[in-house]
Amino acid sequence: MTVRTVLELPDRSLKTLTRPVGTIGATERRLAADLLETMAVSPACVGLAANQLGVHLRAFCVDVTGHRKADSCHGPFVLFDPVVLEARAPVMMREGCMSVPDLTGDVSRSSEVVVRGTTPEGRQLTVEANAFEARAVLHEIDHLDGFLFLDRVAHAHGVHRRRRYT
């Protein structure tokens, strides 16, 4: 496992559509471990997409364990080639991103989602998430499609400077 550098705007990798993974092998399992390790050492990080690490494959990780806004919580997981099967009940909330460290934004996202993908072990996994976990999953899938939360901001006054606490 390796902690990798998280890319920040204006890096073009963040706006690049990622490629399907297909077969899971040693390289993909290493990527999964790197995603989880990088997320774990990044303060307040609840998810990372492969292209945030400069890898243009459809892979992301999420872990909302202990987050005060979480209801559903599947613990740390990685999905390759995720597909959204259902998304409903949009809710407006403030969102941030490791790749946009100085800003947050008001984004409407579904608060209930069903997503299917492949695990690092090669199994199909269906995740039914709600509340904050649903938001985190959809945020990461947006990354895989070349979108940042800034592309989803609800209105002209919906971008805010991130508060810094010392």
Overall description:
By secondary structure, the chain is an alpha+beta fold. The chain has a single domain, classed as Alpha-Beta Complex (Peptide Deformylase), CATH 3.90.45.10. 18% of the residues lie in helices and 34% in strands. The protein has two helices and six strands. Strands 1, 2, 3, 4, 5 and 6 form a six-stranded antiparallel sheet that branches. Strand 4 and strand 5 form a beta hairpin. The model has no long low-confidence stretch (mean pLDDT 95).
Mean pLDDT: 95
Number of H- or I-type helical stretches: 2
Beta percentage is 25-35%
Distance, first to last CA = 30 Å
Shape: globular
Number of structural units classed as domains = 1
Helical proportion?
Answer: 10-25%
Give me the CATH fold name: Peptide Deformylase
Number of strands: 6
Summarize the main sheet. Answer: 6 strands, antiparallel
Low-confidence stretches: none
The assigned structural class equals alpha+beta
The CATH architecture name reads: Alpha-Beta Complex
CATH superfamily: Peptide deformylase
Q: Please compute the radius of gyration using only Cα atoms.
A: 15 Å
Reading the helices and strands in chain order gives HEEEEEHE
CATH level 1 name: Alpha Beta
